[in-house]
From TrEMBL:
Keywords of this entry: Membrane, Transmembrane, Transmembrane helix
Limits of the DUF4126 domain: 7-181
Chain segments annotated as transmembrane: 12-33, 45-68, 106-127, 147-176
Protein's name according to its UniProt entry: DUF4126 domain-containing protein
One Pfam family per UniProt: DUF4126
Amino acid sequence: METILSLCIGIGLSAACGFRVFVPLLVMSIASLMGWFEPMKGFEWLAMPSVCIGLTVATLCEIGAYYIPWVDNILDTIATPVALIAGTLTTMAVSTGEMSQFTSWAAAIIVGGGTASAVQLTTVAVRGISTATTGGIANPIISTGEWLGAIVVSILSLIAPILVVLLVIMLMFVVIRWIRKKRQEKLNKIAPY
């Protein structure tokens, strides 16, 4: 049961990495410093005050950069592989000692990296549609939703991990349906018959 719970926490934190790379790591660092979260062996660095300060600066820079027109689209290109790495690290940082080192890393890469990548690619698609349909005017609204989502999902992942997994699945379903609907509308405009 502990393994399933840690994977649920990892999925939630990884999903948050798909929204904003540094937010979940910052939340984990703050929780570690406050004694609410104990990272696995090898990830004790999350509980260092200097790491928390560095993650705070990185988080603020990342959030701010997404409000600069067209830079947000460029950042998505960089953030996609970085989200995979961050999702893997966050999942590994919460994995239990019940699994072997190989199994823990495999699960972290597949579950954590996969979840972060799926969420990140979804945000890339949403931002791409927003840029194409509004010329980027709506992108700040999307950026605000992403960083707020990253904070809420990160905190909830540590408090109610199973609920977060269900919410992530539901959110992905809603976003995929929205993207398909927008694509169909675009196709109908091109070939209305």
